[in-house]
Fold this sequence. Notes:
alpha/beta; globular; 6-stranded mixed sheet; 36% helix; Rossmann fold
Amino acid sequence: MKVLGLIGSHRKMGNTEVLVKEALVEAKRRGAQVSSLRLTDLRIDPCKGCMACAFKLEDCRIPDGWCTFQDKLLESDAVILGAPTYLLGPAGIIKMITDRTIAFAGRTMEHSGKPGAVIGVSGVRGWDPFSLPMLNVFMFACGLKVIDQVMFYAQGPGEILLDDLAMERARKLGSNIFEAASHPAGERTYVGEHGLCPVCHQNLFSVKDGVLECALCRVKAKFEAVNGATRLIFDPETLKNHRWSEEGLLEHFSLAVFPSGPRFLSEKEEIRRRASKYQAIKEK
């Protein structure tokens, strides 16, 4: 069993790296082969939106560190991802790589079912609302199943080492990922802290016409009042076919993404004609 630790921090031996490696140490103690990859050591360029990876099923054409990341992901049996919080959400490398996962376009099933665990780090409580959600998006976009996630709080580099409870929780996460990877995909269940959404366990919902929708999974729910208390009743259909389910991803790519290529080619000349008026505006 190979467990890969992904470190989304520029700070060497900072709190993120300490926590990810503490989890890896525990996974190794349980019998796993472990390795780590510092994502910030890779040169990851922005996605150019050429869509060759999706429409032509080619490897990404950008000559940077993407292939190193992709190869490490393919070689692993389980993944632990950690990142610090920069202004309400995770460090930019997480979004840069998440954008590039369009290269998996419909091929996330290559990783589907592999267990993953998420570690977020923040210096100040309450300034991290998008950290765990965006780390989850990263994992879901890679086709990984998140079985554990936790947010830690520490400011100075390595300061988390002084928090015995936090280090114990990191070891527990490492043990949980080992246990999950030791069982068949169908037997892997979520063991982390539970949020409102029963799929991603996050608390980000939009409200429209009295119906709530999870921002990550698109699971829908309604409020129900019982004896003065309010509870959420989740729609069973969207629980089954949520955004990241096999059915949801296949529908997204087959109905929304792939048909857009031929449509654009048929409209290309008219688009070019209508856009010609903008050529007079020069870039400086």
